[in-house]
Specification:
By secondary structure, this protein is an alpha+beta fold. The protein has 2 helices and 7 strands.
């Protein structure tokens, strides 16, 4: 179970005494509490912590930079734009100038559309942590 702060097994070992760890009622309640705490952390920090491959972020156009919500950023794989009255998103090539991985800031080489446009960025970013219950997860290359 993905709590954003570890796995359920570890959480149960820290919080409950051994006699209560197998009780399904406590397990379910702790899962809800853990997920709630993770959401509060993300909301307060205005970002998403867990690593995601092909995460999508959509925002208004007319800007030449944007801070993506999952960082550190590993790669930006696609930038798309949709203009008011257009027929959907179309790919923008060679528009990424710089990626400040640690801060999530992507700088574009030009303004992408107008404030009526939408920009969609597909990327990989966030912190990896082992979410498997038996600590068998593998760190991505």
């Amino acid at each position: 179970m993905d709590l954003g702060l570890g796995n359920q097994k570890s959480l149960l070992e820290w919080i409950l005494n051994p006699d209560l760890r197998e009780d399904a009622e406590y397990t379910a309640q702790l899962a809800v509490i853990g997920l709630g705490v993770a959401r509060v952390f993300e909301r307060r920090c205005n970002r998403q912590f867990g690593r995601a491959v092909d995460a999508v972020c959509e925002f208004t156009g007319g800007r030449d930079r944007y801070v993506l919500p999952r960082y550190p950023i590993e790669t930006v794989t696609l930038v798309e734009q949709s203009d008011l009255g257009g027929s959907g998103f179309y790919s923008q090539t060679d528009v990424v100038g710089q990626v400040a991985s640690a801060s999530g800031l992507v700088t574009f080489l030009t303004l992408l559309g107008t404030v009526d446009s939408r920009v969609r960025v597909t990327y990989t970013g966030g912190y990896w942590y082992d979410t498997s219950e038996d600590d068998s997860g593998e760190l991505p290359a």
